[in-house]
Design goal:
With 202 residues, the protein is mainly alpha-helical. Helices cover 68% and strands 3% of the residues. The longest helix is centred in the C-terminal third of the chain and has 29 residues, at 170-198.
């Protein structure tokens, strides 16, 4: 029983400091993820609504132009659904918003490549034109940026909650090191004051 105690304590400590479901509400990364999801969701929602207003055929491969982009009923409905999904991520925030931004961003980039291959074919059911492909790439990159910021990288600051979750023991080691350095500085300060009180040696 005693041999398992350190392991249990280690797992308990890791669970307490792990970055679980969401960021603190007032954390700047949480606000960043929410702003990113909300902004891109708003763009997609507006594009989808404008497409439905024009009453383009659902799978009309010719489509119609909305805000410089080609669209049809299917693409408009899909844009609204994705926009609403991003709004849900904005409301939830935290890891959910970050992960959702990354996943949807990758999906947009893949969609750009797939629809690029389907241009000028009968399988172009979303009525993509080249400007739609470029738009899909841009939105995908922006969403990935909004999702990965402060979460992925080799130079994250040590107060970053994602870094702390990946290195659960490191904050304790750094705290102990700061304590030792502080104690050493206090000791040297005491020795210096003692020398000043005793005066120069005769």
């Amino acid at each position: 029983m005693a041999t398992h105690a350190p392991h249990v304590l280690h797992r308990g400590n890791r669970r307490r400091i792990r970055f679980d479901e969401h960021l603190p509400v007032d954390h700047r990364l949480n606000r960043f993820y929410r702003i990113g999801a909300g902004l891109m969701g708003l763009v997609l929602l507006a594009f989808g609504v404008l497409g439905l207003v024009d009453k383009v055929g659902f799978f009309d491969t010719a489509g119609d132009t909305v805000a410089g982009l080609n669209t049809n009923g299917a693409l408009s409905v899909l844009s609204i659904c994705v926009g609403l999904l991003l709004f849900v991520g904005m409301v939830i925030g935290g890891n959910v918003a970050s992960t959702l931004n990354m996943v949807v961003g990758v999906a947009f980039i893949l969609s750009g490549f797939v629809n690029l291959a389907l241009l000028d074919t009968d399988a172009n059911f979303l009525a993509f034109h080249i400007q739609n492909v470029l738009f899909s790439f841009v939105v995908g990159v922006l969403l990935m940026f909004f999702g990965m910021y402060g979460r992925v990288g080799s130079a994250l600051p040590h107060d970053n909650p994602y870094w702390r979750a990946r290195h659960p023991e490191q904050p304790d080691r750094e705290r102990q090191q700061r304590t030792r350095v502080h104690a050493l500085m206090l000791q040297r300060e005491k020795e210096r004051k003692a020398r000043e009180l005793n005066g120069p040696a005769r």
